[in-house]
Specification:
There is one protein chain. This protein is of the alpha+beta class. The protein has 3 helices and 2 strands, in the order αββαα. It has a two-stranded antiparallel sheet. Strand 1 and strand 2 form a beta hairpin.
Length: 80
């Protein structure tokens, strides 16, 4: 899991005919891994909530949406 996150956050730029690779900070990679894991856990929690109680929990869905937006923002911001 670490390899694809690190690869997605790695910047490649060309300067004076050479390719320069900027690897992301390890804390950023760990933070993204944590956010992805929490999003998956909250998704499972929402599915279980719907299966056992038969209702939609808007608070859990708001947390899922917030974490997904944060992850997307990190990927877009790191590439810019």
């Amino acid at each position: 899991m670490n390899d694809w996150i690190k690869h997605a956050l790695t910047r490649k730029r060309i300067q004076r005919g050479r390719v320069i690779i900027d690897e992301p900070n390890e804390k950023l990679v760990l933070g993204v891994k944590f956010a992805v894991g929490m999003t998956l856990c909250l998704s499972v929690l929402e599915v279980a909530h719907m299966a056992f109680l038969g209702t939609w929990n808007s608070e859990v869905f708001a947390a899922i949406t917030g974490l997904s937006g944060t992850i997307t923002g990190i990927f877009v911001g790191q590439k810019a």
